[in-house]
Amino acid sequence: MLSYEGKIVLAPMVRVGTLPMRLLALEYGADLVWTPEIIDKKLLTSTRTVNTRLNTVDYISNRTLVLRLHPCEKPKLVLQLGSADPELALQAARMVAPDVAGVDLNCGCPKHFSVHAGMGAALLSEPDRLCNILKRLVTGLPGVPVTAKIRLLPDQEKTLELVKRIGATGIRALTVHCRTPADRPRHPAKYDMLAEIVKVCPVPVIANGDFFDRSQFAGILETGVRSIMLARAAQWNVSIFRTEGLLDPMEVSKAYLKKAIEVENPFSNTKYTVLQMWLDRPYSDKNLTRKLQSCKSMAELCGTFNMEYIPTEPLDLDNGEESDEVLCN
């Protein structure tokens, strides 16, 4: 069964964590990778299709690609599920369980799309509902490790009490994003509670938040957390998973585009991800980002990086798009 000990893992990232990013992260050395959050109801309206041309498993709803998985990632792939209902969560998880190594419940996303429907960070204020969903997943998915990802509560004692309750549900690991739901990415992560959380949590704790350099890892691991989850650092340069050191961002962007073409990733999602790889970071190239923003096709994206684009025949889906509405970290 999947182990969550001593791992460096790719976080569930809105729109960015689709198949090409996950495959590239694994190639560079990620121990585990999470899908973006997929909502239970959306999965339940989808049909599982084996794409023999791409050798992928596609979940398609109303001609829209909801999720694309590759068999090579299965041993290290965790589905992140968005849910506010134990039975819907279990039904959706059972659909995808044959194609993944683990299932994770999103209990930390502060975005309106999640919280207004009682999912994500909304579950933090409803611990009974949160724990009931986890218990249902644990009992209903024998042999499939179940985990949860939370944020800190503003009150330390309430955070510790919640961690105890979650840890008693039978989950295999707990990811802690070291911010509160009200915090934004510009607010520094709060690491001071990690050691106390580890003390009261009976399962391995995975730390998440503001890890931008591998030199930070040793200090965080001293708190007793067992693994580290990378989000923005991987988004900006996914070669951070390489023990040998970072690669040039241009090289990484080209590698990402190559993966995106190989798995026929939707153009809009590919463009969005490449832009996120270059925006809001110290070495952002404004000229490059302007060029990327103006791209209207995969060929133009490739041309920006002096790459040749060899088109393939896309699936007969509406605009070849992957559903954005179901992706939330």
From TrEMBL:
Gene Ontology annotations of biological process type: mRNA processing
Cofactor(s) it depends on: FMN
CDD domains noted in UniProt: DUS_like_FMN (cd02801)
GO molecular function, one term: flavin adenine dinucleotide binding
Any GO CC annotation of this UniProt entry: cytoplasm
One family name in Pfam for this protein: Dus
Every DUS-like FMN-binding domain range: 10-256
Keywords: Flavoprotein, FMN, mRNA processing, Oxidoreductase, tRNA processing
Catalytic activity: a 5,6-dihydrouridine in mRNA + NADP(+) = a uridine in mRNA + NADPH + H(+); a 5,6-dihydrouridine in mRNA + NAD(+) = a uridine in mRNA + NADH + H(+)
Entries under PROSITE patterns matching the protein: UPF0034
PANTHER family the UniProt entry points to: TRNA-DIHYDROURIDINE(20) SYNTHASE [NAD(P)+]-LIKE
UniProt-recorded name of the protein: DUS-like FMN-binding domain-containing protein
Organism: Paramicrosporidium saccamoebae
